[in-house]
Amino acid sequence: MAKNANSTGTFRKLPSGNWQVQAMDGYREDGKKKYVYFTAPTKSEARQLLAAYQSKKNAPEEETTGREPPLAVLLGDVADTWYEDYSTQVRASTYNTYSYTLKILKRYLGDRPIDGILPMDVNHFLDELSAVPYSRSCITKCRAMLIQVLDFAEMNQMIASNPARRAKTMRIFSESAEKKDAFTEDEVHLLLEHLPDDLLGNSIRLLLGTGMRVQELLALQPGDFAEDLSSVRIERAVQMVNGKPVLGPPKSRRSRRVIPIPEDYRAYASYLLCHGGKAFIWSSSRDNLLYSVGTFRRRFYKALEAVPGVRKLSPHCCRHTYSTILQAKGVPIEMVARIMGHENIQTTEHYTHTQISTLAAAVAVLNR
Fold first, then answer.
1. What is the DSSP letter of 272?
2. Please, what is the Cα angle at 29 between 24 and 31, to 5 degrees?
3. What is the pLDDT of residues 177-213, one digit of tens each?
4. pTM to 2 decimals?
5. 226 contact partners, CB below 8 Å, separation of at least 6
6. CA–CA dist 20, 45 (Å, integer)
């Protein structure tokens, strides 16, 4: 950010290519400094907008009629600035995934003046996303990003208060919105029995028997397995940055863990060691290169289509299934959270999908 010589404003070039100038414009009622912002394609045009505003403000009232108002600050430009500043606060893979959410936000609200957005506009925005429909997860991320962008605007005194925080906490999404689920016990039996006896089939079986994330599976190296295959150590995970897989740390501090492998599932781990790559169990066609998460997901869905009686759930639902079965069998939730690498029990509770048979067994204590 650079300040011009005659102290008429502070200029910065936005990620969109536009120039933005900020200048003090007196004080607000609460005693805090008031700022005005003007955005234009070039620095010279931004300076002219500021000069026109100052000239209009200082001119007699009768001389100001008929002049065009200054260009408003658009939410899209503020969102770009926030996104640029946010890069140092999160890991590269997370920052990269935010770009998709940012595109959606700018598509619907990018051309709106930021000081004209109302709580009802935020509610309408979320309703529009639901009607498309976008997934529940995507809508939640869009709302969270909008709150952060408007918090950034409020902090920099572009707006008096954040309208997204005064909007409804959660809107009613359409029935078609995606919801995480777990495979039933019958579906698990079908998968274990009918998946092919290859690297993909046995990897899916191991996901069901260990609850590890796909990103953790793709980062596994032969040395991560215990010699007797009784456990697997999670030390790293594959992250997607700009569409390419890179090796990074697990999702959180608790995600570095050792997962016990049930005896019935150790044959699948043995297959992976015998038929997987030398550097990584999963490698691309070129030796020793990491495998893409998206490519694995596509192969996962294709494998499920070949097993009749099994729903097309996401690979992450194997993790939901693992948690659900453990708790249904009486494993304390604190232990499940530790095995899965969750930071808190509340996260584990979201992974539990209680089946009616489990509920029936719970109330069976009322039987004589």
1. H
2. 65
3. 345 689 999 999 999 999 999 999 999 999 999 999 9
4. 0.62
5. 232, 233
6. 10
